[in-house]
Amino acid sequence: MYGFEAMTFNIHGGYLEAIVRGHRSGLLTAADYNNLCQCETLDDIKMHLTATEYGPYLQNEPSPLHTTTIVEKCTLKLVDEYKHMLCQATEPLSTFLEYITYGHMIDNVVLIVTGTLHERDVQELLEKCHPLGMFDSIATLAVAQNMRELYRLVLVDTPLAPYFSECITSEDLDDMNIEIMRNTLYKAYLEDFYQFCQKLGGATAEIMSDLLAFEADRRAVNITINSIGTELTRDDRRKLYSSFGLLYPYGHEELAICEDIDQVRAVMEKYPPYQPIFSKLSYGESQMLDKAFYEEEVKRLCLSFEQQFHYAVFFAYMRLKEQEIRNLMWISECVAQNQKSRVHDSVVFIF
Amino acid sequence: MADHGGGGGGCCPPMDLFRSEPMHLVQIIIPIESAHLTASYLGDIGLIQFKDLNAEKSPFQRTYAGQIKRCGEMARKLRYFKDQMSKAGLTPPVKTEAKCDISLDDLEVKLGDLEAELIEINANSEKLQRGYNELVEYKLVLQKAGEFFKAAHTSAVAQHREAVSEQAPEESLETPLLTDQDSKTDQGKQVKLGFLAGLVPKAKAVAFERILFRATRGNVFLKQAALEEAVVDPSLGEKVEKNVFLVFFSGERAKSKILKICEAFGANRYPFAEDLSKQEQSITEVSGRLSELKTTIDAGLLHRGNLLQTIGEQYEQWNLLVRREKAIYHTLNMLSIDVTKKCLVAEGWSPIYATEEIQDALERAAIDSNSQVGAIFQVLHTKELPPTFFRTNKFTDSFQTIVDAYGVAKYQEANPGVYTVVTFPFLFAVMFGDWGHGICLLLATLFLIFKEKKYSTQKLGDIMEMTFGGRYVILLMSLFSIYTGLIYNEFFSVPFELFSPSAYACRDAACSEATTIGLIKVRDTYPFGVDPAWHGSRSELPFLNSLKMKMSILIGVVQMNLGIIMSFFNALYFRNPVNIWFQFIPQMIFLNGLFGYLSVLIIVKWCTGSKADLYHVMIYMFLSPTDELGENQLFANQKTVQLVLLLLSLIAVPWMLLPKPFILKAQHNRTHQGQSYTPLEGEDESLQVETPHDSHDHEEFEFSEVFVHQLIHTIEFVLGAVSNTASYLRLWALSLAHSELSTVFYEKVLLLAWGYNNIIILIVGIIVFIFATVGVLLVMETLSAFLHALRLHWVEFQNKFYEGDGYKFHPFSFASLGDEDE
């Protein structure tokens, strides 16, 4: 039905698209960031934020503020908006919206499992979880001793269950296993999400496949860089790459055998869209890579708002908002720790 | 230009509402020590609008950012108190007469103390409450789980007895010999069986059971019972529906797993003794402690209530003070600070009449703050357009709002609001002419006006707010519609012989009521309005249509003429002769040559009772102006008059179109030439250089643009003259619709129901009639007539003269603080 979706999209999706576009225009602008970067104390930040969309969430906070409170309240706003949209959504948009949260769910599972491995308090861990990735029995994760139990006890009830099929082992959980589990889950999740978007068709499929491919490629690069120098074999590494994206399949073959960052760079520079990202970095440097990727992502996310009648705007909005919260966290941390010279290191301007 | 305005307006008597208040830009230099007091006094007067001189600075870089933050913090504390008070069911009294004399710093300390105290009390009572809730839960668990045990015990005893009784009669070979041993081993196992008791939220109960089953591979026995009432969860402090559960398990590993699961599900566990007597004992113990805690909690609550009460008494005062302070600092932040940091420079607009008041306030502030230097007040000259400020009262305010909704008048432009006060309700009434409905409307609005004091202080709903705001508009609307209703002679569509009996009567008994043919005039003409004899007659509609249509055109032409005359006053006031000679005069000629003439014809026809066909006259005035009029002639020399008028109208069109752009161009060239000489003129250099520089910025003269603009304007006027006149026919259309609708409701509902001679049908009929009258005629028709009157004012009347591109005067005033914040 490509090309005709514009006729019927508004029946179910029109209201929510309007809502999400409205939310998007509430995102902080470059002028806001400029002002925020000039703040001297967290109270200044609060004062500035109360003049924005975050106002109602922050205005009743007592004065000695902490970075965590700011981030918490901002996240709360995101969650409220998400929940409102989810309540209003009909199929297949509601499924699409749910897919967006699975990434957080995976992160939360990994967080809790790692936490219990290091014998941290469950309640404390729960507070650190992203509220979008919460599910009912998440606290029970602490009971499990190995992957099989993890799956059988808890995850079988969650939407993550199908993704687990590949990583059920009876091995005891350790850091390495958990990291592999995270990546396997993520790979399965991205592939599933990709399939789902393809099934939706139309502009959604077109834009989402671009966004997800970028996500998959970024993960592939990150996995490669992080696994350099560990005991992960090439084959295992190869298995963690998602089976779509620009790098699939030939880039993956090459990435799998990389031994240092410059080799990764050589592989990536063959792909024109990634050339500018790597050309910004000097050789042997990987710290700024994250920021470069984020910037590229933000650019792509913003572009998705240029088209109408598709679901990718919801994905893009959630991502942009998360980036905004990351920015706010970084700025507030810098302000709180008197490191204002480093403010611009990690802030990714939206727009 | 505007400065000379005062003299030019001398032609008409002073009318506050006709021109907006003369304003000037003033500069006030305030010594820093008296700045706060000065701002406070100026806020009390509320007659000066400060310009933001620090627009490029972000809010927290400004001078008084710290104070604003403090005010924000105090406002937060006050909100916290309000929240606590509303939770405790207290409402702060709404009296604000007593001015509180506490200073901001003291208030800050006081608020801080109070907040700390309140938080501490809350924390304590929360702790107690938590303990209390835990005990309540414990008691419930004891009761419920005790029931399990009792039930289990009795059933076990019964089973045992049954088993015994079954065994006893038939001690055959088949009876297992090892029964006793079995039960013994069972008991031996039971010793190792552990159990836990507690409460789990009902919503999670199923998942809880499932996870338990999975985690222990089915080696548990879970018993649950729902509680009848929701209990307050100790950690959440909210009411939650819960289940009591009892889990039996074996082994330490299972125990640790179950403990973890309980923790994960937020299931509260409680110690539970197996022994029945111990259970009883703990129940009594728990009950005792519960009552103890209850008294403690009550005492705490009382204390808290008292504290909140004292806060509540002063809450409104504090709130007002904090808001005022915040507004003052916001204002001070808009002032630019002098380099020496000794004084603040304020710039702002104020009405000229307020100069003395402001100066007085400045002096008072200087004296009261013991400042050595007074504030300096001076008027600045500027080319900027001042804001528009009308001094309205509660009566004219709503009419001015109607005009402002279209666009705020340009500074000192003729204000249509003056005329709107009368013409708006009048045009409404022309469409809503029925004195019965008018009286209903009048009663409703009188109710609002009598309740004015009460309603103006409280919050009303959206629609109610709107109605209340426009109560004086509605008052006039209803009075006028009673008037037009009397003219139309309609009372809920029924005519009355109010002023004298009808002038017509039947010639003989045979004439039917539905015809006018048999009627003869027996008396003088009916003195006021429409003769009731017309009602129900066959020629009622043609007669009323012709009347209302002609009336609409007359009203329309008069109102449009008024609009054009207003443009004359504007041109006179702003010293713009070009607009008078090349816009006002040809426009008058064009409109009156065609439609003014039509109006004259209508009046002549009414007066002489001629049977001339006015359509014919008007159409053939254009098609063949030289033809003889024949029977359509209304007065002597009509043909000549028509020819002259037609020619004048034709001339008026190019007159409007052509000269003005050329004159403007010539004017521009002249000033442009003059400019090159001005710098040579010596002393006044600074002044002279500034003026041409300014005007040069604004007036980039583009002849084609001006010409096209004039062309559009002319076309719009010429076409508009026709279409606007036609547009006034909506007066007729709506009035017709209104009277027809009310006739339908009266005849088809009320009279029909009456005809059945059945009391029930009559009651139903009356109810339907009332609802239809109120819902359709009084509410919907009022709305539609209102909208049409609005349109006639905004489009047909105001486009003749009204620019409406000014901006409103927003003075810094404490009086308007209240409504903004809420």
Description:
Chain A has 18 helices and no strands. Chain A is mainly α and 351 residues long. In chain A, helix 7 runs antiparallel to helix 10 (175-200) and helix 12 (234-240) crosses helix 13 (250-256). The longest helix of chain A is centred in the middle third of the chain and has 26 residues, at 175-200. Chain B contains 25 helices and 13 strands.
* Structural Rg of chain A: 21 Å
The rounded distance between the terminal residues' Cα atoms of chain B is 41 Å
Main sheet overview of chain A: none
Low-confidence stretches of chain B: 1-13, 178-191, 678-698
Distance between the termini of chain A: 32 Å
Offer a few descriptive terms.
heterodimer; A: 351 residues; mainly alpha; 18 helices; 64% helix; 0% strand; globular; B: 822 residues; alpha+beta; five-stranded antiparallel β-sheet; four-stranded antiparallel β-sheet; 25 helices; 8% strand; extended; disordered N terminus; V-type_ATPase_csu/dsu (chain A); transport (chain A); hydrogen ion transport (chain A); V-type proton ATPase subunit (chain A); ATPase_V0-cplx_dsu (chain A)
